[in-house]
Protein backbone atom coordinates (compact mmCIF):
# COMPACT_ATOMS: atom_id res chain seq x y z
CA UNK A 1 0.00 0.00 0.00
CA UNK A 2 2.78 2.42 0.99
CA UNK A 3 4.81 1.40 -2.05
CA UNK A 4 1.93 2.18 -4.44
CA UNK A 5 1.36 5.52 -2.72
CA UNK A 6 5.04 6.44 -3.10
CA UNK A 7 4.99 5.43 -6.77
CA UNK A 8 1.93 7.60 -7.44
CA UNK A 9 3.42 10.50 -5.45
CA UNK A 10 6.68 10.22 -7.41
CA UNK A 11 4.78 10.24 -10.71
CA UNK A 12 2.70 13.22 -9.56
CA UNK A 13 5.84 15.20 -8.69
CA UNK A 14 7.37 14.47 -12.10
CA UNK A 15 4.19 15.57 -13.90
CA UNK A 16 4.05 18.69 -11.72
CA UNK A 17 7.57 19.72 -12.72
CA UNK A 18 6.80 18.98 -16.38
CA UNK A 19 3.51 20.85 -16.64
CA UNK A 20 3.75 23.58 -13.98
CA UNK A 21 5.43 26.06 -16.40
CA UNK A 22 2.73 25.40 -19.00
CA UNK A 23 0.02 25.81 -16.37
CA UNK A 24 1.51 29.17 -15.33
CA UNK A 25 1.61 30.26 -18.97
CA UNK A 26 -2.07 29.36 -19.40
CA UNK A 27 -2.98 31.31 -16.24
CA UNK A 28 -1.03 34.35 -17.48
CA UNK A 29 -2.93 34.26 -20.77
CA UNK A 30 -6.09 35.09 -18.78
CA UNK A 31 -4.41 37.70 -16.54
CA UNK A 32 -5.70 41.23 -17.17
CA UNK A 33 -2.45 42.71 -15.89
CA UNK A 34 0.68 42.62 -18.05
CA UNK A 35 2.72 41.91 -14.94
CA UNK A 36 3.72 38.28 -14.45
CA UNK A 37 3.81 38.70 -10.67
CA UNK A 38 0.43 40.37 -10.12
CA UNK A 39 -3.07 39.05 -10.83
CA UNK A 40 -5.20 41.80 -12.34
CA UNK A 41 -8.38 39.83 -12.89
CA UNK A 42 -9.76 37.44 -15.48
CA UNK A 43 -9.88 38.59 -19.11
CA UNK A 44 -10.06 37.28 -22.68
CA UNK A 45 -8.63 40.48 -24.16
CA UNK A 46 -5.28 38.90 -25.00
CA UNK A 47 -7.00 36.29 -27.16
CA UNK A 48 -8.92 39.02 -29.00
CA UNK A 49 -5.76 41.11 -29.49
CA UNK A 50 -3.89 38.02 -30.64
CA UNK A 51 -6.01 37.71 -33.77
CA UNK A 52 -5.73 41.47 -34.34
CA UNK A 53 -1.93 41.41 -34.26
CA UNK A 54 -0.77 41.12 -37.88
CA UNK A 55 2.87 40.42 -36.98
CA UNK A 56 2.00 37.42 -34.81
CA UNK A 57 -0.55 36.12 -37.31
CA UNK A 58 1.96 36.36 -40.16
CA UNK A 59 4.58 34.56 -38.07
CA UNK A 60 2.04 31.85 -37.17
CA UNK A 61 0.99 31.43 -40.81
CA UNK A 62 4.63 31.17 -41.94
CA UNK A 63 5.44 28.68 -39.17
CA UNK A 64 2.50 26.41 -39.96
CA UNK A 65 3.09 26.62 -43.73
CA UNK A 66 6.78 25.75 -43.43
CA UNK A 67 6.03 22.96 -40.94
CA UNK A 68 3.32 21.40 -43.13
CA UNK A 69 5.20 21.67 -46.43
CA UNK A 70 8.52 20.48 -45.00
CA UNK A 71 6.84 17.57 -43.19
CA UNK A 72 4.90 16.55 -46.31
CA UNK A 73 7.91 16.71 -48.66
CA UNK A 74 10.20 15.06 -46.11
CA UNK A 75 7.63 12.28 -45.63
CA UNK A 76 7.52 11.57 -49.38
CA UNK A 77 11.33 11.63 -49.74
CA UNK A 78 11.91 9.73 -46.50
CA UNK A 79 9.40 7.00 -47.39
CA UNK A 80 10.95 6.54 -50.85
CA UNK A 81 14.44 6.44 -49.29
CA UNK A 82 13.28 3.85 -46.74
CA UNK A 83 11.90 1.61 -49.48
CA UNK A 84 15.17 1.87 -51.41
CA UNK A 85 17.31 1.19 -48.34
CA UNK A 86 15.16 -1.76 -47.33
CA UNK A 87 15.92 -3.46 -50.67
CA UNK A 88 19.69 -2.96 -50.30
CA UNK A 89 22.17 -5.49 -49.02
CA UNK A 90 23.10 -5.42 -45.34
CA UNK A 91 26.40 -3.51 -45.57
CA UNK A 92 25.25 -0.52 -47.70
CA UNK A 93 21.99 -0.36 -45.73
CA UNK A 94 23.93 -0.20 -42.45
CA UNK A 95 26.20 2.53 -43.83
CA UNK A 96 23.24 4.61 -45.00
CA UNK A 97 21.46 4.16 -41.67
CA UNK A 98 24.58 5.43 -39.93
CA UNK A 99 24.64 8.47 -42.24
CA UNK A 100 20.94 9.03 -41.52
CA UNK A 101 21.64 9.17 -37.79
CA UNK A 102 24.32 11.86 -38.11
CA UNK A 103 21.93 14.87 -38.54
CA UNK A 104 19.93 13.70 -35.51
CA UNK A 105 23.02 13.38 -33.30
CA UNK A 106 24.62 16.54 -34.67
CA UNK A 107 24.14 19.82 -32.80
CA UNK A 108 21.48 22.08 -34.32
CA UNK A 109 23.85 25.03 -34.38
CA UNK A 110 26.33 23.05 -36.52
CA UNK A 111 23.55 22.06 -38.95
CA UNK A 112 22.21 25.62 -39.08
CA UNK A 113 25.59 27.24 -39.75
CA UNK A 114 26.48 24.56 -42.33
CA UNK A 115 23.25 25.11 -44.26
CA UNK A 116 23.69 28.89 -44.08
CA UNK A 117 27.24 28.62 -45.46
CA UNK A 118 25.98 26.32 -48.21
CA UNK A 119 23.29 28.82 -49.28
CA UNK A 120 25.78 31.69 -49.15
CA UNK A 121 28.34 29.71 -51.20
CA UNK A 122 25.67 29.06 -53.83
CA UNK A 123 24.69 32.78 -53.80
CA UNK A 124 21.17 31.72 -52.80
CA UNK A 125 19.05 34.43 -51.23
CA UNK A 126 18.05 33.55 -47.68
CA UNK A 127 14.29 33.64 -47.20
CA UNK A 128 11.22 31.41 -47.12
CA UNK A 129 12.57 28.85 -49.60
CA UNK A 130 15.92 28.50 -47.79
CA UNK A 131 14.12 27.85 -44.47
CA UNK A 132 11.84 25.31 -46.18
CA UNK A 133 14.78 23.42 -47.69
CA UNK A 134 16.61 23.46 -44.37
CA UNK A 135 13.59 22.04 -42.55
CA UNK A 136 13.13 19.33 -45.20
CA UNK A 137 16.80 18.39 -44.76
CA UNK A 138 16.65 17.82 -41.01
CA UNK A 139 13.17 16.23 -41.14
CA UNK A 140 14.03 13.43 -43.56
CA UNK A 141 16.00 11.32 -41.00
CA UNK A 142 13.04 11.36 -38.59
CA UNK A 143 10.76 10.02 -41.32
CA UNK A 144 13.23 7.30 -42.31
CA UNK A 145 13.62 6.13 -38.72
CA UNK A 146 9.82 6.01 -38.35
CA UNK A 147 9.17 4.07 -41.56
CA UNK A 148 12.07 1.57 -41.46
CA UNK A 149 10.74 -0.45 -38.47
CA UNK A 150 7.41 -0.91 -40.28
CA UNK A 151 9.23 -2.13 -43.40
CA UNK A 152 11.02 -4.77 -41.34
CA UNK A 153 7.65 -6.03 -40.08
CA UNK A 154 6.23 -6.46 -43.59
CA UNK A 155 5.55 -9.86 -45.04
CA UNK A 156 7.10 -9.80 -48.51
CA UNK A 157 5.04 -12.81 -49.56
CA UNK A 158 1.82 -10.76 -49.64
CA UNK A 159 3.31 -8.28 -52.13
CA UNK A 160 4.67 -11.07 -54.32
CA UNK A 161 1.32 -12.89 -54.12
CA UNK A 162 -0.45 -9.76 -55.36
CA UNK A 163 1.94 -9.59 -58.32
CA UNK A 164 1.37 -13.29 -59.08
CA UNK A 165 -2.39 -12.66 -59.10
CA UNK A 166 -1.95 -10.07 -61.86
CA UNK A 167 -1.74 -6.80 -59.93
CA UNK A 168 0.61 -4.13 -61.23
CA UNK A 169 3.53 -3.03 -59.04
CA UNK A 170 1.94 0.33 -58.22
CA UNK A 171 -1.46 -1.25 -57.48
CA UNK A 172 0.12 -3.93 -55.27
CA UNK A 173 2.13 -1.28 -53.41
CA UNK A 174 -0.80 1.02 -52.63
CA UNK A 175 -3.24 -1.80 -51.82
CA UNK A 176 -0.96 -4.24 -49.99
CA UNK A 177 2.20 -2.50 -48.77
CA UNK A 178 1.05 1.08 -48.13
CA UNK A 179 -1.72 0.23 -45.59
CA UNK A 180 0.84 -1.59 -43.42
CA UNK A 181 3.33 1.27 -43.74
CA UNK A 182 0.78 4.01 -43.09
CA UNK A 183 1.13 4.09 -39.26
CA UNK A 184 4.90 4.58 -39.61
CA UNK A 185 4.44 7.18 -42.36
CA UNK A 186 1.90 9.06 -40.25
CA UNK A 187 4.20 8.94 -37.21
CA UNK A 188 7.06 10.26 -39.35
CA UNK A 189 4.89 13.08 -40.70
CA UNK A 190 3.69 14.14 -37.24
CA UNK A 191 7.21 13.96 -35.83
CA UNK A 192 8.59 16.00 -38.74
CA UNK A 193 5.78 18.53 -38.36
CA UNK A 194 6.48 18.86 -34.63
CA UNK A 195 10.25 19.21 -35.09
CA UNK A 196 9.74 21.86 -37.76
CA UNK A 197 7.23 23.73 -35.62
CA UNK A 198 9.61 23.69 -32.66
CA UNK A 199 12.86 24.55 -34.46
CA UNK A 200 14.64 27.82 -33.74
CA UNK A 201 18.40 27.48 -34.27
CA UNK A 202 18.37 26.23 -37.88
CA UNK A 203 15.60 28.66 -38.80
CA UNK A 204 17.53 31.55 -37.24
CA UNK A 205 20.58 30.92 -39.43
CA UNK A 206 18.73 30.28 -42.72
CA UNK A 207 15.77 32.67 -42.66
CA UNK A 208 17.28 35.98 -43.71
CA UNK A 209 15.65 39.27 -42.69
CA UNK A 210 12.34 38.95 -44.52
CA UNK A 211 10.97 35.84 -42.80
CA UNK A 212 9.81 35.40 -39.21
CA UNK A 213 8.52 32.26 -37.56
CA UNK A 214 7.03 32.07 -34.08
CA UNK A 215 10.30 30.90 -32.54
CA UNK A 216 12.38 33.68 -34.09
CA UNK A 217 9.73 36.31 -33.32
CA UNK A 218 9.58 35.26 -29.65
CA UNK A 219 13.38 35.41 -29.55
CA UNK A 220 13.41 39.00 -30.83
CA UNK A 221 10.67 40.00 -28.37
CA UNK A 222 12.42 38.55 -25.30
CA UNK A 223 14.74 41.56 -25.17
CA UNK A 224 11.78 43.98 -25.27
CA UNK A 225 9.46 41.87 -23.15
CA UNK A 226 7.11 39.15 -24.35
CA UNK A 227 3.61 40.37 -25.13
CA UNK A 228 0.70 38.65 -23.32
CA UNK A 229 -0.70 37.76 -26.76
CA UNK A 230 2.11 35.20 -26.98
CA UNK A 231 0.80 33.52 -23.83
CA UNK A 232 -2.61 33.22 -25.49
CA UNK A 233 -1.09 31.81 -28.68
CA UNK A 234 1.01 29.28 -26.74
CA UNK A 235 -2.10 28.19 -24.83
CA UNK A 236 -4.03 27.62 -28.06
CA UNK A 237 -1.14 25.63 -29.55
CA UNK A 238 -0.87 23.49 -26.41
CA UNK A 239 -4.61 22.77 -26.39
CA UNK A 240 -4.51 21.93 -30.11
CA UNK A 241 -1.75 19.36 -29.49
CA UNK A 242 -3.68 17.84 -26.57
CA UNK A 243 -6.86 17.53 -28.67
CA UNK A 244 -4.88 15.97 -31.54
CA UNK A 245 -3.25 13.42 -29.22
CA UNK A 246 -6.59 12.49 -27.64
CA UNK A 247 -8.13 12.07 -31.11
CA UNK A 248 -5.26 9.87 -32.35
CA UNK A 249 -5.25 7.71 -29.21
CA UNK A 250 -9.03 7.22 -29.29
CA UNK A 251 -8.80 6.25 -32.93
CA UNK A 252 -6.08 3.71 -32.13
CA UNK A 253 -8.21 2.27 -29.30
CA UNK A 254 -11.21 1.91 -31.63
CA UNK A 255 -9.05 0.25 -34.30
CA UNK A 256 -7.61 -2.19 -31.76
CA UNK A 257 -11.11 -2.95 -30.46
CA UNK A 258 -12.41 -3.66 -33.96
CA UNK A 259 -9.45 -5.88 -34.78
CA UNK A 260 -9.91 -7.70 -31.46
CA UNK A 261 -13.46 -8.59 -32.43
From TrEMBL:
User: Per its UniProt record, what Gene3D superfamilies does this chain match?
Assistant: MetI-like
> Where is it located?
Cell membrane
Q: Which GO terms describe its biological process?
A: transmembrane transport
Cellular component GO terms, alphabetical = plasma membrane
* PROSITE patterns in alphabetical order: ABC_TM1 (PS50928)
Entry's transmembrane regions: 9-30, 59-84, 105-126, 132-151, 172-193, 230-248
Membrane topology, record value: Multi-pass membrane protein
Q: Which keywords does this chain's UniProt record carry?
A: Cell membrane, Membrane, Transmembrane, Transmembrane helix, Transport
InterPro entries with a match to the protein in the record: Bact_Polyamine_Transport, MetI-like, MetI-like_sf
Task: Give the chief site where it resides.
Answer: membrane
- According to its UniProt record, which protein family does this protein belong to? Belongs to the binding-protein-dependent transport system permease family. CysTW subfamily.
Q: Per its record, how is this protein called by name?
A: Spermidine/putrescine ABC transporter permease
Q: What is the source species?
A: Anaerocolumna cellulosilytica
Organismal lineage? Bacteria, Bacillati, Bacillota, Clostridia, Lachnospirales
Amino acid sequence: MVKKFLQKAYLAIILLFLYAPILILIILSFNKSKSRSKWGGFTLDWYVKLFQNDDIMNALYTTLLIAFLSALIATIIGTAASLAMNNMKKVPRTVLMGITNIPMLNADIVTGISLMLLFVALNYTLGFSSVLMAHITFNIPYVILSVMPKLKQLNKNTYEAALDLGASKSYAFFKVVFPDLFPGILSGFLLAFTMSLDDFVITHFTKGAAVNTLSTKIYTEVRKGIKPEMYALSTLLFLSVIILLVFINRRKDKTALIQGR
